[in-house]
Amino acid sequence: MGNHVTKLLDKARTQLTQHPPAALASAREALSISEQSGPTNQHIESLYMVGISLREMGNPKEAFSYYEKAVSLIDKSTPNRVRAFIYSALSIYHALRYQKKEALEFANMTLSCIDVVSDYECLISVYARIGACYIKLSLYTEALSLLIKAEAILNEDFSLKDEGYIYSHLSVVQSRMKNYEESLKWSYKAGQVFESINNKRGIISCLINRAMVYYYYNSNIDECISILYKAKVLCEEDMQQFGATYSLVLMNLTNNYAHDEKKDYDKSLGYALESYGIAKKLGIENIVCLTLGGMVKAGIHLGTFPSMLEKEGMYSLEDIMIAALEKNGQINDPLISKVTYEIAIEFYESREDYKMALYYQKKLTEIKDRISDKEKDENLFALNIKHETYRKEIRLKQLELEKKELELQQKEELKEINRQLEEKVKARTTQILAKNHELEQYAYIVAHDLKEPIRSIVGFSQLLERKEKENISDNSKELLGYIKEASYNMREMVDDLLKYSTIHVDEENFKEVNLSQLLEKVFLNLRNAIKESNAKIIVGDIPEHITCDPIRIRQLFQNIISNAIKFRHQERNCIIKIKGYKSQKGYTFSIKDNGIGISDEFFDKIFLLFRRLHTKDKFNGSGIGLSVCKKIVNLHGGDIWVTSEDNKGTTFHFTMQS
What we know:
Blueprint lengths: L1 H14 L4 H16 L5 H16 L3 H14 L6 H17 L3 H15 L5 H17 L3 H15 L8 H14 L3 H17 L3 H18 L3 H16 L2 H19 L7 H18 L2 H18 L14 H15 L2 H17 L3 H19 L4 H25 L5 H61 L6 H28 L9 E4 H11 L1 H7 L2 E4 L5 E4 L1 H17 L8 E8 L3 E8 L31 H11 L4 E6 L3 E9 L1
Helix pairs in contact: 1-2, 1-3, 2-3, 3-4, 3-5, 4-5, 5-6, 5-7, 6-7, 7-8, 7-9, 8-9, 8-19, 9-10, 9-11, 10-11, 11-12, 11-13, 12-13, 13-14, 13-15, 14-15, 15-16, 15-17, 16-17, 17-18, 19-20, 20-21, 22-24, 24-25
């Protein structure tokens, strides 16, 4: 009986890519037989195979019920390989529904399982799934790191069935990080693998991503539409299996025909309605939201309303816009929010409702801040260096295994590898420094040139208000108020950007300074704030002297202490403790307060440029102080991070090279 179940499961795995209904039949037969023996590992694996087959056939909800049954039966005897497959399937399920907490929980459980798995096929399959999970949650750096590990295994010349998905996910994550040429390279490589094994789902996935690259890379709309039509034809060959993917293709066609180059809003609306119908039936919330937005965009330009939506309680374009915004709120995906807010701005401007348009403009600015922080060129350079380093580590392990036979040859090769790696690191480091300098110069020039038009906007707004004081309506006064408020905010941000772009450290400025004397100058500068807040600053053990740029380090301590005073707790005396020590690598410091604290979800975000956790009416400032701190620490060869608890206090830690 056990051998028969094993054969059926192997058969289902073989059939899964080419013919999911046949795989489902084999998996159900294996499940039926294994049930007779009660809960066993074969029974758990049969439940998982039924779930995976259902997912491939476009029935994720029913698949989820089988995953849950499988998880409930897992015990100490369940092999790590089986655990990893089940947990990874659940991580993908929750990621597709934007349930981030659950998705990451199962992703971490998966990765803890594969630490002890030596089966390369299992590793590649699981890496592909967790990589896809991270991409769906917009964790692109984490996805790239994981996929690089998987690709390094593939370079060992193993023939593994999920190879195409690793390349495909690398293409997607490079596209999301705006590294389009790299994305196309991986896309074509994935396409070759999928075509060689006739994996239609993989081929369609590559076509969709390739079309997106053409859309964002060079706005080649004709090429983009041509690629999407190829994907559409492949989906139509088996709508039972590719229904969900078909709705995604139609949604992309909706966007392409609404592009400025095409402006074929009739076609855009038609594809939006068809995509919406399929996505709503299958419960694909993100596509439902985007297609509602597509209908609004087309409706604005056509001046019409799709009356077939009246049966769903939508009787105007505004009803559709509200439905899209409500759906966006349920999904909480930054990329979808960006598209939805852009359409909302266009819609309310077309209705001359500038108050609502301004509201969604502010929302759009906030969401852009969230999704732009991981798109810096220096991150890509650093990740590429890590990629090269990891490949070299794999090669070194191979050399160690060959040591007895090729000991002399190994030493020569190891020296050459290290030499090449050092040269690459030096070259990449030089590129990064040059790029950083170029970005600083660019930011300075742009910010400086922006000051004049901002000054003009403020001046002309005030002039208009004075000259037309008797004639201007209350509504117009309100709009002028919005203009002036936005201009003042912009001017403050430009001033801060100029300050930030001019922060640099030259080795000539480095010297040995007495740290206690430096801190005394900081306290003197903050004497009014310290006195008004009745703050108590306790300096513990610290190095007597440090080598640094004293002006920048004084600015660093002053910004952090000033923040501690600003965000003090109103119901207790403000106490700030400073400590530090010298190690072989450099200096480590901590500045601890007993203030209002910071939630852990904001730990990485507080150092981003213009990132504010509180509104200006509660705490003043533009949100640049901690960004300046991070830049100063980085320029001193160190790192900065935070630990905190809500309502209990915050500790800033930072290091510096000696």
